[in-house]
């Protein structure tokens, strides 16, 4: 990501959620709260994203979007929606069992904090992200009245999370925490991911959990969705957001220690969440891991 600009990937996902909310087949996977926040960010970000927002809301654009999806990563839109729904349910379950804090790393324009804070009014929500992306999120939240979210501006790819500063800012490491790193770690080199895992464990009380996604290495060692075309490879490299880290499930348990792998959620699990869409493609290659301390 360029230093002065919001992540293009975050903007693309925000637009995708608005598009899915207006698609009768997929609207139930994206809440109105989520779509409204994403729409507000796009409307406020620039004249280009404002125009794009108007376009994705149009009925005629749906077949165009499907065509673009087919020539880039078939099934990626539904993958985004089901991935978010899966993680949302994991967080909701943890909060119902008494987890006190939720921290979203590389939150982008994800609306999860605003969705859950109404349901769990005593929980504390934190978002950590690159300053260039986060400032747009902060402004949008302020303008639409979303409160009780603590924002910490850090470029995690270039600097580690300052444990002492985080605690002095109000985070309580003695309380159980649910950490989220969704669609983030594949953009970091392996040593940064490993260091971050250790930092998070040092801030986590027993019983804390971590949900993160990772790209599963293909047989030839490549990091990509199974159906991903070269157009996407070129776009990611050109925008400065290529995939840098991925692994195999058999190697992950050792890599993330002292975290313990609880279970994986892959393409087949997401298919079960969207079982009524049996004929719809779902992109394969990114896996959700739930781990605990």
Give the termini distance in whole angstroms.
31 Å
User: Which residues form runs of ≥5 with pLDDT under 50?
Assistant: none
Largest sheet: 8 strands, mixed
Name the quaternary structure.
Answer: single chain
The helix content is: 40-55%
The averaged pLDDT comes out at: 90
Helix run count? 12
Question: How would you characterize the overall build of this protein?
Answer:
The protein has 293 residues and is an alpha/beta fold. It has helices at residues 8-21, 32-45, 47-56, 61-70, 76-96, 112-119, 131-143, 163-168, 190-202, 230-238, 249-255, 267-273, and strands at 101-105, 124-129, 149-153, 177-181, 209-216, 246-247, 260-265, 286-292. Strands 1, 2, 3, 4, 5, 6, 7 and 8 form an 8-stranded mixed sheet that branches. α10 links the parallel β5 and β6 (246-247). α1 (8-21) packs across α2 and α1 packs across α5. It is globular, with a radius of gyration of 18 Å. The two termini are 31 Å apart. The model has no long low-confidence stretch (mean pLDDT 90).
Please give a quick description of this structure:
Helix content is 45%, strand content 15%. The chain is built from 12 helices and 8 strands. Strand 1, helix 6 and strand 2 (124-129) form a beta-alpha-beta unit.
């Amino acid at each position: 990501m360029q230093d002065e600009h919001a992540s293009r990937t975050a903007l693309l996902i925000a637009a995708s959620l608005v598009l899915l909310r207006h698609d009768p087949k997929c609207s139930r996977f994206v809440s109105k709260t989520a779509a409204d926040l994403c729409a507000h960010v796009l409307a406020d970000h620039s004249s280009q994203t404002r125009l794009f927002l108007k376009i994705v809301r149009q009925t005629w654009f749906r077949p165009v979007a499907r065509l673009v999806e087919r020539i880039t990563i078939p099934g990626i839109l539904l993958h985004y929606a089901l991935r978010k729904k899966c993680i949302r349910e994991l967080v909701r379950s943890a909060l119902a069992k008494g987890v006190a804090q939720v921290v979203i790393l590389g939150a982008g324009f994800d609306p999860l904090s605003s969705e859950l804070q109404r349901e769990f009014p005593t929980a504390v929500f934190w978002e950590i992200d690159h300053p260039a992306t986060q400032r747009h999120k902060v402004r949008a939240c302020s303008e639409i009245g979303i409160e009780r979210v603590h924002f910490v501006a850090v470029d995690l790819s270039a600097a580690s999370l300052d444990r002492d500063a985080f605690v002095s800012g109000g985070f309580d490491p003695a309380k159980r925490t649910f950490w989220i790193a969704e669609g983030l770690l594949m953009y970091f080199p392996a040593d940064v991911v490993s260091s971050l895992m250790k930092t998070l464990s040092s801030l986590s009380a027993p019983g804390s959990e971590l949900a993160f996604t990772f790209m599963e290495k293909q047989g030839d060692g490549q990091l990509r969705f199974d159906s991903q075309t070269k157009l996407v490879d070129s776009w990611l490299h050109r925008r400065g957001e290529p995939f840098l880290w991925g692994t195999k499930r058999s190697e992950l348990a050792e890599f993330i220690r002292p975290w313990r792998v609880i279970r994986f959620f892959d393409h087949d699990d997401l298919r079960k969440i969207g079982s009524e869409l049996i004929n719809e493609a779902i992109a394969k290659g990114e896996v959700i891991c739930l781990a605990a301390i």
